[in-house]
UniProtKB/TrEMBL annotation:
Signal peptide: none annotated. The keyword Transmembrane helix applies. This is Competence protein ComGD. It is found in: Cell surface. Keywords: Competence, Membrane, Transmembrane, Transmembrane helix. The keyword Aminoacyl-tRNA synthetase does not apply. Pfam families: N_methyl. One of its GO terms (cellular component) is cell surface. PROSITE patterns: PROKAR_NTER_METHYL. SUPFAM superfamilies: Pili subunits (SSF54523).
Length: 149
């Protein structure tokens, strides 16, 4: 005759309670990453924007033609064209809808002349969440700088 042995082990309820406790502890120990994502998003945009402006300046000087940069406020996009607003599109850059480009003293379009100078000086504010950057274009060889506010 076979005897039934009583095997010891964990019940399903005990396992679920342990997994619940472990998952709550993990959720509490992992820091919130929202602010890091926000910072990286705007940092990436600023770096890309600086590279695009330098590209526009270099293109204007090497091809001996003006480069026009138009900021579209209805859409999250800016466009770089050769010669005029209706010229050949050199670059069209989209960015996050959460990111806002606000012209303060610099009105669209921004033009790089064949000698590398900009048509006018001015300031643009770039805002993403709680972070704001000021981009200032100076007269003379298209110089500009970015300042975190």
């Amino acid at each position: 005759m076979k005897t039934m042995r009583k095997e010891s082990g964990f019940t399903l309820i005990e396992m679920l309670i342990v997994f619940t406790i472990i998952s709550v502890l993990i959720m509490l120990s992992v820091p919130k990453m929202d602010h890091l994502v926000e910072k990286k998003q705007i940092d990436y945009f600023i770096e890309q924007f600086k590279d695009d402006m330098l590209y526009a300046q270099q293109y204007a000087m090497t091809h001996k033609s003006s480069v026009v940069i138009v900021f579209y406020h209805q859409q999250p996009v800016y466009r770089m064209m050769e010669g005029s607003v209706f010229g050949r599109i050199l670059l069209q850059r989209s960015y996050s809808v959460n990111l806002q480009i606000q012209p303060v003293t610099l009105q669209s379009p921004l033009i790089f002349f064949p000698n590398g100078n900009v048509n006018k000086s001015g300031t643009i504010l770039v805002t993403y969440g709680k972070q704001t950057y000021k981009i200032v274009f100076l007269l003379g060889k298209g110089r500009f700088y970015v300042q975190k506010l």
